[in-house]
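Students often ask why inverse folding is considered easier than folding. One informal answer: many sequences map to the same fold, so there is more than one right answer. In these notes we will look at a single instance of the problem. The structure comes first.
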């Protein structure tokens, strides 16, 4: 019996905004732990989130680049779950009415593009930096609240090689990749 792989991808793209998704905290990296936080991104009582207009604009740019239908209205929801690096006990995300629907890149159909915030970062006290054999784990909340666009493809890919090629195409072709997203240096598209 032979099986055919059927692959759909969910890709998180960190948006290149100056501030976090729902507060005015600076979005910088390499700062001392827990120095880029406020009552909103820590989820303290009474703190009210306000959506980052630049993140919404970048999300719409990604949707346009992928040929998506842009929603005339979208809604954010609380996705409740417990992780030690999620201080609020929920993540603000979109589900029912995402920012963008449909679209295509190459031969792969795009199901949706929606916005959400990233969790904080667990740091494990071990020689490898991993949880295995760590003596303790601490949380750095600087990353919590970072704006993300999540691109969800339809299950149109049929091999790991095809998925890798498509990801390379996505990084190289999306016109907003330079202005709207931060790519880790190890897989950022190289100038030709």
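Output (designed amino acids):
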């Amino acid at each position: 019996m032979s099986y055919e792989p059927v692959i759909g991808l969910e890709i998180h793209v960190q948006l290149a905004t100056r501030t976090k998704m729902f507060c005015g905290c600076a979005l910088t990296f390499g700062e001392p732990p827990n120095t880029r936080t406020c009552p909103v991104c820590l989820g303290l009582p009474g703190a009210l989130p306000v959506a980052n207009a630049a993140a919404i604009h970048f999300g719409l740019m990604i949707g346009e680049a992928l040929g998506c239908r842009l929603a005339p209205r979208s809604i954010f929801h609380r996705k409740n779950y417990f992780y030690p690096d999620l201080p609020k006990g929920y993540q603000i995300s979109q589900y029912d009415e995402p920012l963008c629907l449909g679209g295509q890149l190459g031969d792969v159909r795009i199901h949706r593009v929606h916005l959400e915030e990233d969790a904080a970062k667990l740091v494990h006290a071990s020689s490898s930096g991993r949880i295995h054999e760590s003596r303790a784990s601490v949380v750095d909340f600087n990353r919590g609240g970072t704006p993300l666009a999540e691109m969800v493809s339809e299950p149109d890919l049929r091999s790991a090689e095809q998925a890798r090629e498509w990801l390379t195409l996505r990084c190289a072709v999306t016109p907003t990749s330079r202005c709207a997203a931060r790519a880790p240096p190890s897989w950022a598209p190289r100038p030709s």
